[in-house]
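User: Hi! I'm working on a homework problem where we have to compare a predicted structure to a textbook description. Could you give me the structure for the chain below?
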Amino acid sequence: MTLSTRPLITRVLAVAALAMLLFTTAWVQSASAHGSTISPPSRNYGCWQRWGGNFQAPEMATQDPMCWQAWQNDPNGMWNWNGLYREGVAGNHQAAIPDGQLCSGGRTGGPRYAAMDTPGAWRAASVNNNFTLTVHDQALHGADYYRVYVSRQGYNPLTQPLRWADLEQVASTGVIPPGQGTRTDDPALNGVSNSINVSAPGRTGRHVVFTIWQASHMDQSYYWCSDVTFPGGTGPTPTATPTRTPTPTPTRTATPTPTPPRTTAPATTPPATTPGTPRGCTATYTVTGQWSGGFQADVRVTAGSAAISGWTVTWTWPNGQSVGSSWGATVTSAGTGVSATNVAYNGSLGVGASTTFGLLGSWTGSNGSPTPTCVAT
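Assistant: Happy to help. Predicted structure tokens:
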């Protein structure tokens, strides 16, 4: 290398470093949005908090089976634990959210949060009949109100989907201005928390706490289910809880990044699906978020009329896109061709069962959806 070339290389490296810094800063700012109940934790926040640093761990299936089925259904429901909301409800929550779908906000985001509605032995926090609910507002939206409901005595969350008739409203707030609350130093939260005093007399054993947050910045309604155990009842035997580091890093070759907020430009192309053989599998590709030069996509793999033990999905980019990182599959690229193979925890699928994997990519010019092909192994 000559002395004359060193300044040029130095400038190139400096520009690249600056571009990466600006991208990272913008991403962190965009990801720091929305919120959830954090104590007692919502179902998807709790699953992310316990397993976000090791979401491929096979022991989750026995230690935390409800979180296991949720991660299997759609990992993005946990990575985006702060984004379970609907827009344009206009306060008519019961009309917008059907019975049996309260915990998923009426299946907002399609299948993303559907597993939150599944009855079962979700990890439950022990509380007294008078307890404090903590809600976290990452984006400093403020609240028109919070409403807190607790399931009625006799409802069984282990076996029954949650209905509006199963709930009793036990607390509510007035307007909470944007930014009001207790600041946190936890970089995974990065916002303010507010505490709500809740009184639920007469309850024993397992119950569900259902919270509605009507954000103030726009007509945006959040819905969260938290599982609790009141004195006088029994719950499932506690199991060891994995330790979460402040910034969890899943054990995979590429680190997933939360989906950009829904205010980013939506995909302009419909999902692309190709059929497989009856004993094979199908794959559906959907862009879930898009921004200048980048995008995130989900691929849903579904087994056919017979169980499968593994799968490989392939496609060719129509517009020269490229994969930057992925999770839930081992993804390799060769030119415009992409091949994605299951990882250890999501290869075996029963008849009609499905799983998802995700990726972050880059694009220029246009971002058309490819047509994936799925082969069962």
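For your comparison, note the following. DSSP finds six helices and 19 strands in the chain. The helical segments are 6-31, 43-51, 60-63, 65-73, 76-79, 93-96. Good luck with the assignment!
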